[in-house]
Amino acid sequence: MAEALIRMKDVYKSYGRGENKVNVLKGVSISVDAGEFVAILGPSGSGKTTLMNLIGLIDSMDSGHYFLDELDIQKQTEKSYASIRNEKIGFVFQKFNLISKYTALYNVALPLLLRGESFKNAREKAAKTLARVGLEDRINHRPNQLSGGQQQRVAIARALVGDCPLILADEPTGALDQKTGAEVLSFFQELNNEGKTIVMITHDENIAAKANRMIRVEDGLIYEK
Ligand SMILES: Nc1ncnc2c1ncn2[C@@H]1O[C@H](COP(=O)(O)OP(=O)(O)O)[C@@H](O)[C@H]1O
Ligand SMILES: [Mg+2]
Hints:
Layout lengths: L3 E12 L6 E12 L3 E5 L6 H8 L7 E6 L2 E2 L8 H8 E4 L11 H11 L4 H14 L15 H14 L4 E5 L7 H16 L3 E6 L2 H4 L4 E6 L2 E3 L2
Adenosine-5'-diphosphate binds next to strand 2 and helix 1.
């Protein structure tokens, strides 16, 4: 049996208090096995980013259970979230979220430096990973010297460099033109064929169709056909 990389059960998440309380996730259960390429699809405001933030340990749930790579997240302190993220998850965001004052090389090296690898090792691995995404001749460029598609490839290299079991992407093609977006998607498919687990959030049916499995978020609940 394949091993579940993500196991969520009866997850609730709200924002605000009292009259202003908004219940966003209302009892969500999801299981994703290692090696899957899953799209989480839903209209704007349906709770996709909220769900991604919970999966990615960027935010914490109100109640429910979450196991990430067999680790019981409820038993971890929020202080330990950063190091769990660093070890388990490579993130890709719609707006790339690169650090503008750093070069592509340093942006990609950062997750390794944060986990205490030597500068030499981090630099070598970052350069290799940037070559993997076709940017070997751009390693010393800063984000504002790169196109949107190139910046997203730097972000993908940053998500790959630490060899985390999970890639978590929130609208990764949302800021790209169609052709560049298609390139990012086929790169995800290639990575998945090599065994990476990918969870990709999108509001676009056509993009979701590139994944092997589709989970719909609607009004705080999950549907799977
Ligand atoms: N930090 C927050 N504080 C209050 N409400 C929020 C916050 N983040 C999201 N929401 C609300 O939660 C709902 C779901 O948002 P989100 O998860 O960003 O949806 P999606 O990514 O599907 O567009 C929306 O109604 C949004 O306004
Ligand atoms: Mg969103």
